[in-house]
Design brief:
By secondary structure, this protein is mostly helical. The protein has 8 helices and no strands.
Amino acid sequence: MPELPARNGGYQVQDEESLVQRAKQRDEAAFAQLYEEYFDKIYRYVTIRIGDKMEAEDMTQQVFLNAIKAISSFKWKGVPFSAWLFRIAHNQVVDYLRKSKKRVSVRLEESLVASDSDPQGIFERKLNIERLISATKKLTPAQQEVISLRFAGEMSVAQVAKVMGRSEGAIKALQHSAVVALRRVLSVP
């Protein structure tokens, strides 16, 4: 099947729907395409939410294992397939956090910072990431979720609304309050 041109960095809806239909029929190549399209976004979302890169890799793999097991029950409702994947990821994150009973801070690793031969630049980026992580922890859980989905998961407001089970207006308001809170926290010296 020829691939349609990408729109907004992803597949067109018709192409995605076709891939999902093929994946539901156990077409491994179709599921592999969906995996390639969404793995990094799901991984970034999980990493930001749980703060442990190694555990996030395992959890992201588990999201796709759960998806392949349950894909036959997926019903196309006109929303992107990614909303379903992020719902699976969200549920896994909630279970993980419930079990761990505490939030773990994100470890700053070289892989989170762009490779650069400039040690000063690397240090400054790490410092900025640390400040952002620290500031994000001061948000409410719902604000953290919307920020993670919108920016790490690169999801639209409509997709986030679907994943979080809220209206688009509520997501916009939540995102606005989260950004205002982050600005306030980050502006304090």
